[in-house]
Amino acid sequence: MNIEQIKELVKIVNSSNVNIIEINEGDSRIRIEMERQKIQSVSKNEVQLNTAIHSDEVNADSLSVNPSTKEIKAPMVGIFYTAPSSKDKEFVATGDKVKKGQVVCIIEAMKLFNEIVAEEDGEIVEICAQNGDVVEFGQPIFRYL
């Protein structure tokens, strides 16, 4: 099988609903796998309903940030976890005192679980992300005093 034939197979897989194609030809074997993202459609009514619910939950207290609080920010893009597993206790909760170097959460990035630690002693006043949320680089994940 030459490179042009392989390119053609990749085009076919890309443009179809096929996720995996494997071809054995003599001593040669080629396997092409495509990881596809699932797309969920949302109707206009659902979006409006969710927006209304969200706006009811927002109040003035949640919009103001105490200027004396400090933030622990996500050092990478990934999935935020509050505990090592669903069966384990959360690393920290609101009101907990933390020590410098204490693990406060895990961020999974590229199938690696990265422990995020407190950079200094303090008290957690807000957990800014939910368990399982995707967090962005620099996004506040905790606020502490």
TrEMBL record:
One matching Pfam family: Biotin_lipoyl
Matching InterPro entries: AcCoA_biotinCC (IPR001249), Biotin_BS (IPR001882), Biotin_Carboxyl_Carrier/Decarb (IPR050709), Biotin_lipoyl (IPR000089), Single_hybrid_motif (IPR011053)
Coiled coil: none
Domain of life of the source: Bacteria
GO molecular function, a single term: acetyl-CoA carboxylase activity
Pathway listed: Lipid metabolism; fatty acid biosynthesis
Role played: This protein is a component of the acetyl coenzyme A carboxylase complex; first, biotin carboxylase catalyzes the carboxylation of the carrier protein and then the transcarboxylase transfers the carboxyl group to form malonyl-CoA.
Name of the protein in question: Biotin carboxyl carrier protein of acetyl-CoA carboxylase
